[in-house]
Amino acid sequence: MAAALEAILAGLLVPDNDVIQENTGKLKEAFKDPGALPALCHLLGASENPQVRQLAAVLIRRKVQKSKQWNALENDVRQGIRDNILQLLLREPERGVRTSIASLVGTAAKHDLPNNAWPQLFEFLLTYTKSADTAQCELGMFLLYTVAQMATEQLKPHLMSLLQLLIEKLNDTQNHLVPYYAIRTMSELVFFAGDAEGKLLQGIVPQVMAIIQQLTTVDEEKASEALELFDELLETEVAIIVPHLKPFMQFCLQVASNTEFGDELRVKAMSFIASLTRLKKKAVIKSHLVEPILHVLIPIMSSEEEEEDEEPEPEAESHTPPQYALQVLDILALHLAPGNFIPKVMPMVEKCLSSEKATERRAGYLAMAVVVEGCADYVMNKLMGAMLQSVCRGLNDSESMVRNAALFALGQFSEHLQPNITKYSSELLPLLFQYLGKATQEADKNPRGLTKSYYALEMFIENLGQEIMPYLPDLMNHLLTVLKTSPAVRPRELAISAIGAAATAACEGMKPYFQEIIGHFRGYLVSATEEDTKKLQVAAIDTLGVLARNIGKETFMPLATECVQLGLGLLENADDPDLRRCVYGLFAALSGLVKEDLNPYMEKIIHYLLLSLKSTEGVTAHYKEETEPVAIFNEEALQDEEDIQDSDGEDSDALKLEGISVENAYLEEKEDACCALGELAQHTSTAFLPYLEKVYTEVLELVEYPAVGIKKAAIATLGQLCFCVHETCSKNPSGDAENALKAMLCTVVPKYLEIAKEDQDRTVVMAAVDSLHELLERLGLAVLQVTNTTDAILQGMKDIFTHKVACQDQEEDEDEQQAEYDGMLIESAGDVLPIMARLMGGEAFSPFFASFLTDLLKRLKQTSSTAEKSFAVGTLAEVIESIGHTTILFVDTLYPVFVRMVKEEDDEVRSNAVFALGMLAANGGDKMKAHHADILKQLLEMLNGEENLRVIDNMCAAICRMIWTNAANLPLEYIVPAVIQCLPLKEDFEENTTVFTCLLQLYQDNNPQVMSNLEKLLQVVATILGTPQAKPDTQKLLVQFVQNVKDKYPEKYGSIKGGMPGEMASKLDHCLTIDINTIPTTNGCHKGGCC
User: Fold this and answer.
1) Contact present, 771 and 752 (Cβ < 8 Å)
2) Please, are residues 382 and 341 in contact by the beta-carbon 8 Å criterion?
3) Closest of 411, 236, 256 to residue 328, by C-alpha
4) Which residues form the Importin N-terminal domain (predicted)?
5) Region 950-954 average pLDDT
6) What secondary structure, in 3-state letters, does 804-858 show?
7) 1010 close to 1003: Cβ distance less than 8 angstroms
8) Helix count (H) and strand count (E) of the chain?
């Protein structure tokens, strides 16, 4: 049989599909013969064709890869395989065949090691790994590495003795492959290392680095592979590296900066720099490594001569050293305190910008672009004007690559430096329009310039709000002209996206352009056969969703049904994840308009969304093993019925899974499908209930999904599903709905707390904390009563404040400056405190607040960042508001702090401090009344010189709060006119309720200062009514006041009204027709100056 089988195998190696198919059928028949396996074993040792020998080894391994297959063999057959393959390994001259035989040894070892059925294997390994013959030692180490790959878990009982052997082999200087295989074997075993093994490994880190450095001079590829040991240590036992962090980082910097090395090795070295900065930033700072890292990264970024086809997005996977250096810089900005990082990086950036080399100038602008996300507050407070001037100079650079980088920087600034950058709209928008026109004309010469121009424009305009209106006609004229006249697809695609950004800002201001926009879109929406027209279709549907959210219900509703039907029609045959994603976004947007009227289409919509949640499209599994360079036929065709039935989950794959990758488009589709389900649940209420259980089950599973974006979407959607059931209970109370909500809360709230404690990604933890906050805000005390998690929530927030959760650097000193992203997580936890205080009540919450006070006060030091100060004083103010008169317990601690903080230079900090001081004055009882005169004196002195309108508004409110609580002891004749003089409020409209509640109470008491200022007050009322200032609570107060003045003082009312302009007088008269009981009341707590 062996001869016939050899002929079949030789046929399988012929590069002809017909021949391969014919011999595959023959092999399948041959495998039905019990003698097939012995024949393969014979060929493995006897065939003169090395490819046949290798294929025989592969097929033998396939036949015994599962434990049941191996154990089903006769004992003498198993023993024959054991005895022969070790001898065949020794005499095999071809490296590829040896590799396949070694894999077969590893497969057999995986089955035999647990019951010690192959003691000869360990004898063989010990003999050859300890051999004085360098070739034999190399073979022994190679086999040990292969066995460790295939049978990692089975070697666990021998871990300590194996590590001792491997450490001994690191000293081999005769053959560089011996220590190489020792390091590779360690990489396989390190996952199982305990404390004792960790100490062993920690001691040999310098030696491993030296070996890898030596390998870089003889075999760069093997050096890169050996570095995987540090990959494994970073994943499992980073503490092993920490004592050697500085020399290891220096080694990585040397490798990264060496242009003689290939991209793979240099990028891998930089990946360690990024990971250690993320995981152990304190050690990086204390080792004085930030500047050396920057001195390596910036030149690498400057070395790229040609631009890539795509933008260098910091989040994207990068494979060239210049691209990856940009990612590392982004990570430094996200994880290091801006006060330590920016002063080190900016001098290097400025040097680049003044260089005569275009690549260096380009690198300078790219560096500016990526640092702003992590250091936004610092840049806004200290550098924004200067950085914008630099970018504007870059837009006029003679080299297109530099101009494009400057545009990218401007786009990043526009995205991350909100809202401060909008103050420069009058200077920047004309410049952007000018550049867009130029880039449109030069699109053929500089296509990236066009893309970058639109990117910068979109990022800037979508955050402008109504400030876009003066520029909207010119902008829309340009965009609509592009849609009418451009023959190329890319300009139209960019223009469609920019229309969406304009709609986000202008909202109903887009109405004059709506019909023309829809006219253009109709040509793209229905049929798209070519790849290019599909891009226009996706862009048009995306922008259609934006218009549905922003242009107003009255304008878009006539198209709503048509849009739903269009989306469902497109999904019937959609094989493009981008198309599905944007249709889901459209459905989510439409649900906000049509609400429960979406019910007739819900079943189909939910069906498609769930398909995307469950889909495994775009998923690719990557395996560590099976690299035999043999032309392998379709092996699935050889699986006999016994093998198929044997798939019971045990050893179902002989290959070792290294990882799974998913194409970005499919990840985005899954994420947007999850978000759409959350919006549908929230907007369609009872119409969603029939699908709730299925959706909830699928979304709950997605919380464990490895992709960060999907995980965050699932976290938010779980909360929205709870809101859906809660709203249903409110409208139509039922026992089933209440029980469902209780069960959901008892799962969701602990899940949020678990994520906050254990997840490694800060943004995921922030999503969990923010969703928990929203649950508490909207569902109230029921969340705590049903889940019994009051203590767990408080402890969870405390752990975040004290850097005890997994995503934080556990060694970080709380007194040190922190990265802004770390601060954002702490701010999310801080937002939970006031709502917990309100739900628990002052007495129950105050013991916890007392323990928390120190953590907040630490952030009010002179050396603290502006963001820390603003957050801490704002949180303290909101907690005081929530705990009410229990505040008296904390007056002695907080009063001197707030008095100091109202003198802060930063407007936001000062505004929050004034708000906090007012809250303390109102809730601090007699202790605070003793300070009222001093507070008034300080506020009135500040009022005379204060220029910030929000601070002035907060001063008025603080004075009014003191009048509430202590009117009899305050000089009302001075302070009431001072307050009235500052009306109407200019920025903090939330405080209108505070101010007018106070003034109208004084009016009821016939306060002479109020009575003598009735004309001024009625003018203020007429100014406020009909504007965004008139929140429901404020409107109710103002209408009541106007009606009362008219009833009590009709002549005076008539006289005052007669002296007003017609529009203002009409507003007053309209108040007389309003039934105040029909005015809704605002729900939720008032956050005053801290919003």
Assistant:
1) yes
2) no
3) 256
4) 23-91
5) 96
6) CCCCCCCCCCCCCCCCHHHHHHHHHHHHHHHHHHHHHCHHHHHHHHHHHHHHHHH
7) yes
8) 57, 2
Residue 405 in tokens: 């980088």
The SS3 call for residue 661 is strand
Determine phi and psi for 90, rounding to 5 degrees: -65, -35
Calculate the alpha carbon distances from 421 to 28, 383, 426, 672, 800 in Å: 70, 12, 11, 29, 31
Tell me the C-alpha distance between 477 and 473, whole Å.
6
Higher pLDDT, 307 or 505: 505
Q: What does the pLDDT look like over 1034-1050, one tens digit per residue? A: 888 899 899 999 999 99
User: Which pair of tokens denotes residue 877?
Assistant: 């103010």
Q: Tokens standing for 623?
A: 């395996």
Greatest CA separation found in the chain?
120
With a pLDDT cut of 70, the percent of the chain lying above it is 93
Confidence of residue 1025 (pLDDT cuts 50, 70, 90): confident
- Listed as own residue / partner, the contacts of 429-432 with beta carbons closer than 8 Å and 24 or more positions apart are 429/460, 429/461, 429/471, 431/392, 431/395, 432/456, 432/457, 432/460
Half-sphere exposure (Cβ direction) of 34: Cα atoms closer than 13 Å? 4
Cα separation, 802 vs 1019, whole angstroms: 51
- Residue whose C-alpha is closest to residue 377's, from 867, 950, 956, 897: 867
Amino acid at 667: L
Instruction: Evaluate if pTM is beyond 0.90.
Output: no
Query: What span, in angstroms and rounded, lies between the C-alpha atoms of 684 and 850?
Result: 43
The C-alpha torsion from 146 through 151 and 154 to 155, rounded to 10°, is 20
170 touches 186 (CB < 8 A):
no
Is there a contact between 1040 and 1085 (Cβ–Cβ < 8 Å)? no
Quick one: pLDDT at residue 810?
62
- Residues shown for the chain: 1091
* pLDDT of 740 higher than 80: yes
Q: Taken in order 737, 743, 747, 753, is the CA torsion positive or negative?
A: positive
Task: Determine contact, residues 811/284, Cβ cutoff 8 Å.
Answer: no
Convert the pLDDT of each residue in 74-105 to its tens digit.
Answer: 888 899 899 899 999 999 999 999 999 999 99
DSSP class of 630: S
Q: List the one residue out of 604, 600, 593 whose CA is nearest residue 567.
A: 604
User: Count of CB atoms within 10 A of residue 804's CB?
Assistant: 13
- For 33-45, letters b (16+ CB in 10 Å) and e give eeebbebbbbbbe
Of 950, 940, 869, the residue nearest 904 (C-alpha) = 869
374: which 2 tokens? 């992590």
Of the candidates 175, 173, 93, 181, the residue with the CA atom closest to the CA atom of residue 134: 175
pLDDT digits (tens, 9 = 90+) for 464-506: 989 999 999 999 999 999 999 988 899 999 999 999 999 999 9
Q: What angle do CA 788, 790, 793 make, to 5 degrees?
A: 120
Q: What is the C-alpha to C-alpha distance for residues 3 and 467, in angstroms, rounded to an integer?
A: 84
Are the CB atoms for 464 and 420 separated by under 8 Å? no
Distance of CA 1017 to the CA centre of its chain: 48
Cα–Cα distance for residue pair 914/529, rounded to 1 Å: 62
The radius of gyration of the chain from alpha carbons, rounded to an integer in Å, stands at: 35
d(CA 725, CA 682): 9
Please count the other Cβ atoms lying within 10 Å of the Cβ belonging to residue 287: 16
Which token pair is 337? Answer: 């305190």
Output the six-digit token pair for 600: 């007739």
Which residue pairs from 530-533 have beta carbons closer than 8 angstroms and sit at least 24 positions apart in sequence? 532/489, 533/489
CA atoms of 690 and 724, how far apart (whole Å): 12
SS3 660: strand
Tell me phi and psi for residue 708, to 5 degrees. -60, -45
Token reading at 700: 């709950």
